[in-house]
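Bug #77: duplicate submission created two jobs. Keeping one. Sequence:
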Amino acid sequence: MLPPRKTRSIQVGPLSLGGSNPIAVQSMAATQTRDEKATGRQIELLSAAGADLIRIAVDSTRDVESLIRLCSTTDVPISVDLQENYRLAESVAPHVQKIRYNPGHLHHHEKETPIAEKVRWIAQVAQANDCAVRIGVNAGSIAPEYDEAHANDHVGAIVSCAVDHCQILDDAGFYNYLVSIKDSDPRLVIEANERFAKQRPDVPLHLGVTEAGMPPDGVIKTRIAFEQLVAQGIGDTLRVSLTVPFENKGQEIEVGRQILTDIEAGRFRSVPKGFFDGLNIIACPSCSRVENDRFIELAEEVKALTVYAEDHDVTIAVMGCRVNGPGETDDADLGLWCGPSTVNLKRGPQTVGTYSYDEVLGALKQELDRIIDPPGVTIAPHE
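Kept job's structure:
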C-alpha cells in the first residue's frame, strides 16, 4: 500500500490530483503541434494506453490554432506547455485544463516586465478559465538569477526557484497549482523533490526524470527516482520520459503504471552495482519542439556507435531541440542538440561545430576518442 500524501488536492478539469487521489500517469505528444495528423496520432496512442493527462506544446500562433482543433478530438484532459512566449496562455486557456510554464524561460520575452508580474498574469488567465497551473522547473534551463545566487548548489537553485514561484502564486490568491522539479540524473531528482517537499509539503508534485533516454536504461533511471520518492509519499502525478519511436509512445504510460503497481505491491528493484559508472547517454523523449524527426534515429545511432566506450565515465547528451538543448548539453562531456537540418556538437559548454545529420557521428567519435584516449595520456576504464 502506498503511504499517504500530505499535499492538497487540485483540479485539472475532471481530474483530481494530490491528497488522497490516485497518482495520475501522464505523457507528452512527441510531435510538432502544427502537424495535426501526427499529433492527433500521438493523442490517440496515449489515450489508448490509458493516459490521465496529455501535454502538448505551443510555440506560435500556428501551434495554438492546431491545438484548439486537436483538443476537440479527445476527452482526456489537456495540459498546454508554454515555451518561451508566455503570452500564448491567453489564447489556449479557454480550450485546455492546465497551463505549464517554465520559470527559466520567462525572461526571454518582455525583458522589462518583472517575472512576478508575468506569473501573476498567467495566474489571472488560468483563474478566469478554470485552468490549473504547473510550475515546471527544469535543471537544464534554470532562471539566470537562481543560477547566480546558488552557483555551488545546483539542487538548491532549482528548489529555491520552485519555492519562490509558489509564493508568487500564493500571494496572488491562486492555489490550483502544482510543481515539477526535473533533472536527467535521478539522484538529483530525488534530492530536489525531497528538499522541496520539506519546505512545501502542501504543494502537489509532478515527478519525472527528464531526458531519461532509451529503454532499458531510461526505465531504470526513472524507476530509481520514483521508487525512492513515491515510497516516501512524495509524488501526485508522474511522467516517464523515454526516447522511443513515435508509434511506441504509449510505452511511457505502461511503464509508469507498472512502476506504481510494483511500488504498491512492495516489489522494489535494487539499483545495479555500478549503474552510474561508465558511459551515460542522456536523450530527451522528443516533443513538438523537435524540428527534425531524424533525432530519434540519431539517438539510436549514437548509442550503437559509442558501445566501445561503455566502460569509460563519459556522459553524452543527445537533445532534440533548441529550447532545452543548449542548456542540457552544457553539463555533459559531449552534447548534441538538433536543429531542422544540422546538429550542434558540443564538448562541455563549448561548441565544437555544426554538422549535417550524416556527418555528426564521425565528428562525435573523434571527440569521444580524444576524451577516452587523449594524446600522451592513458586513461584506464573504471573498475
